[in-house]
Specification:
heterodimer, A: 55 residues, mainly alpha, 2 helices, 64% helix, B: alpha+beta, Sortase, Chain: A, two-stranded antiparallel sheet, disordered C terminus, transmembrane helix (chain B), Class E sortase (chain B), Sortase_Class_E (chain B)
Chain lengths: 55, 270
C-alpha cells in the first residue's frame, strides 16, 4: 500500500520524502481539526454533567 | 536444490510478492496506520484540547473587560464582607460568560470563565465551566450548580478532589464577589440529578420547600478519564462583597490579584 504510494510519487528520493512529510502533516491537521472532534462525540470518556435521562 | 532454498537477487524478491503476501502486507500496513491514528487521537484528546481550550479561556476572560477593584499603593483594598441579601443577576442567554471562578486551592494563577449552559460541544469543551440552566444564579437562594471538565479541554475542575472542607470558592460577576466555602463532597452516578436540585437530595418532581440556603455545586467526571461516575463538591455562601470596594481577603491571602491594577485602571490610585 505505502510501497505503491512511494512508487507513484515523482522525483528523487529526497523529494518523495518531502512530499510524504507534507502529506502526513496534512492528514494530522485534518484529524485534529475535524475528524477527532467528531469522533470524540461518541467517546464519552469525559462527560461531567448529571442528567435526568439516561439513554 | 529446492526452490525454497531461494534463488539469489531479483528472482527472490519476485517470489515474495505473491498475491497472498501482498494481502498480508496491506493488512499489516492498515493495522499500523490504525495504531498510529489511535495514538494521535490520544495526543489530541489529552494535549491539544487543553492547548486550544486554554487559549479560548484566556481570550474569553480578557474580553470581559470588567472594572477592576480599586488599588492603593499597598495593593488592592480588602473587600468588606457583607452578609445581607446579595444582588443576584438574571439568568443570561445560553453561551454568555457571566462570571469567573477563583479557587485558591487550585493555585494562584487559577481563574476560569463560567458560561450559561452545560452543552458539551459549545460550552464545556470550549468556554470553560458551565452553569446548569434553571439552577440558582450566584448568591441566590437555592443551588448555583456548575459543571466542568476534570480532564481535557482546559480541565477547569482538574484538582476538584483536592478541595477540603472550608476552602473558599470565589465567584466574581461584573459587579459582585460571592465567597462560597466547601461544605462536603460526594461521588454519585451520572443520573443522580438531585445533587444539583435547590436543596440537594430533593428528587425531581418533589415539592420545593421554602429555600433558606445559598449553595454552590460543582460536578466533574469521576474517576479521571472515565464517565462512570461524577465527583460532586457542595459549598455554601459565606459572604458577598461589591467588586468596586476591593478584593476578598481569601484571594489576597493566597497571592491572587495582589497586583491587580486593572487594564488602564478603573481602580483609582491613591
Amino acid at each position: 500500500m505505502y510501497g505503491l504510494l512511494w512508487r507513484a510519487l515523482p522525483g528523487p528520493a529526497w523529494l518523495r520524502v518531502l512530499i510524504l512529510l507534507v502529506l502526513a502533516a496534512a492528514v494530522v491537521a485534518a484529524c485534529f481539526e475535524w475528524v477527532f472532534p467528531w469522533v470524540s462525540e461518541y467517546v464519552p470518556m469525559n462527560d461531567n454533567t448529571v442528567e435526568a435521562s439516561t439513554p | 536444490m529446492t526452490r525454497r532454498g531461494g534463488p539469489p537477487g531479483h528472482a527472490r524478491a519476485h517470489t515474495r510478492r505473491g498475491a497472498g503476501s501482498t494481502v498480508v502486507g496491506v493488512v499489516g500496513e492498515l493495522f499500523i496506520t490504525a495504531g498510529v491514528l489511535l495514538g494521535l487521537f490520544v495526543v489530541w484528546q489529552l494535549w491539544w484540547t487543553d492547548v486550544q481550550a486554554d487559549r479560548v479561556h484566556q481570550q474569553v476572560l480578557a474580553d470581559l473587560d470588567w472594572a477592576e477593584p480599586p488599588v492603593q499603593d499597598a495593593g488592592p483594598d480588602v473587600a468588606p464582607e457583607r452578609h445581607d441579601e446579595p444582588p443576584v443577576l438574571a439568568e443570561p442567554p445560553e453561551g454568555e460568560v457571566f462570571a469567573k471562578l477563583y479557587v485558591p486551592r487550585f493555585g494562584a494563577d487559577y481563574v476560569e470563565p463560567i458560561a450559561q449552559g452545560v452543552d458539551k460541544a459549545t460550552i464545556l469543551d470550549r468556554l470553560g465551566i458551565g452553569h446548569y440552566p434553571g439552577t440558582a444564579m450566584p448568591g441566590d437562594l437555592g443551588n448555583f450548580a456548575t459543571a466542568g471538565h476534570r480532564t481535557t479541554y482546559g480541565k477547569p475542575y482538574h484538582q476538584v478532589a483536592d478541595l477540603k472542607e472550608g476552602d473558599p470558592l470565589v465567584v466574581r460577576t461584573e459587579k459582585t464577589w460571592y465567597v462560597y466555602r466547601v461544605t462536603s463532597h460526594e461521588i454519585v452516578y451520572p443520573w443522580e440529578v438531585d445533587v444539583i436540585s435547590p436543596v440537594p437530595g430533593l428528587q425531581p418532581g418533589d415539592e420545593i420547600p421554602e429555600l433558606t440556603d445559598r449553595l454552590l455545586t460543582m460536578t466533574a467526571c469521576h474517576p479521571m478519564y472515565s464517565a462512570a461516575q461524577r465527583y460532586i463538591i457542595h459549598g455554601e455562601l459565606d459572604y458577598w462583597a461589591p467588586a468596586k470596594k476591593g478584593v476578598p481577603a481569601e484571594l489576597l491571602d493566597a497571592g491572587i490579584l495582589t497586583d491587580a491594577s486593572g487594564p488602564a485602571g478603573d481602580g483609582k490610585v491613591a
